[in-house]
Protein: LmbE family N-acetylglucosaminyl deacetylase
Amino acid sequence: MTEQLKPLPDDWQRALVVMAHPDDPEYGVAAAVAVWTAAGKDVRYVLATKGEAGIAGMPPDESGPLRADEQRRACSHVGVSALEFLDYPDGRIEEGLQLRRDIAAQIRRHRPELVVTLNHRDAGWRPGGWNTADHRAVGRSVLDAVADAANEWIFPELTEEPWAGVRWIAVAGPEVTHAVEVAAGIESAVASLAEHRRYLEALSADPVPDQARRQVEMVTAPREDFGGRRAVAVELFGDI
Structure:
């Protein structure tokens, strides 16, 4: 018998989604975000880069502003109004103290109870696949930065007050323990991903709406381990 996923706790009010690139939330958790904001929860995004190295044939100084604008429009479909970029170089993020400090500062400033990030492991989503360096660096730094944000003696130069209120870290990746039912958020998530038009056009000749729907329906497919419901599944760290 398939081990059943537990429902993600919902007794929280504010979440901070910290990921590496524009489109990272849309490829994974946007349907859950749409459900959360529709229920009155406050969800905010912090992205490490503007994704300026993500479009073949388009120079970074042109691609970065374009992708940032696409991300702002994407946010509007899922009820997210707070979006920040840390302006790390796309494809060249280095795991280390600087990244931990910058993420800890964001956690202290936004004061979330739930932090959401992307797959931090070496392995990617597909068997035999290798995860990207940016995803690994950001995901691992998020896990460390939650503790850093709570400790007044780590990064004492930060002006933001320490924040020990993070109760959970949810990692969207191949290893999962909990899930969120997202049937009501599917259409919003499709519209959100479709805003990354130039990026998707560079990936495939298929129509952008078709690409967006295919991706969202894949990551939110009905799960036997969650009662056959459409869900976003995550690995949860914290009070579980």
User: Anything to note?
Assistant: Residues 6-238 form a domain with the Rossmann fold fold (CATH 3.40.50.10320). The chain has one domain: 6-238.
